[in-house]
Design goal:
alpha+beta; nine-stranded mixed sheet; globular; Aminopeptidase
């Protein structure tokens, strides 16, 4: 499937304007993929770090017991997500489902305190590449190693499935997440990603 041209986007935006759509936001895009959107009038909303880590060596120990995510965990992990992220980045049920189905196979892991989730991760795999799709920890439990354990669990699952590289992106201003990922062996890619938006002309 070919990427859209700026003319394709202008035609789509005209149809959305006719329907009264006020705002359009892109997914995370590379510099190359973003150019047609910029040519069609989109502007920068957010810059993201893009990081990668090799999985060719055995990942470090997980550090705590984790559990498969279950349907009854969904409400609580979405509450955690709401507290962990700014409004624009928060997941709802649809977003969580899309993250879990964005790749041919995926893993949904939770960290529990008793029976209550205190953090979760969604990891996807497509061929030999893995993607840390989502990571959220209850903000009152930051600093307890929960995020590290969830990321390491993602490493182990991907390694066992034959992936040799894992990628993740995070907001440039999210220094806590960036520090965690770099501590766990991720390195920044030469170019990051961007999210663009376009508002309906008044």
């Amino acid at each position: 499937m070919r990427p859209p041209t700026s003319q394709d986007l202008l035609q789509a935006l005209a149809r959305l304007d006719e329907k009264g759509v006020e705002r359009c936001v892109t997914p995370a895009l590379s510099r190359y993929d973003s150019q047609p959107f910029l040519d069609a009038g989109f502007v920068l909303l957010e810059r993201l770090h893009l990081l990668s880590r090799s999985l060719l060596i055995t990942p470090p120990p997980i550090g705590r017991r984790l559990h498969p995510g279950r349907p009854w965990h969904r409400r609580v992990v979405l509450d955690i997500d709401r507290r962990a992220f700014d409004p624009f980045w928060r997941f709802d049920s649809t977003s969580l489902h899309e993250a879990r189905t964005a790749t041919p196979s995926s893993r949904f892991s939770v960290a529990l305190d008793g029976r209550k989730p205190i953090g979760y991760a969604v990891t996807g795999r497509a061929g030999d590449r893995g993607y840390l799709q989502r990571l959220a920890v209850e903000p009152t439990r930051n600093g307890e190693g929960i995020g590290s354990a969830l990321v390491r669990d993602s490493f182990h699952w991907l390694h066992s499935k034959g992936a040799n590289l894992v990628m993740v992106n995070t907001q440039e201003r999210n220094q806590r997440a960036l520090g965690l990922y770099e501590h766990l062996g991720f390195t920044p890619e030469p170019e990051g990603l961007v999210v663009l938006e376009r508002r309906r002309p008044s």
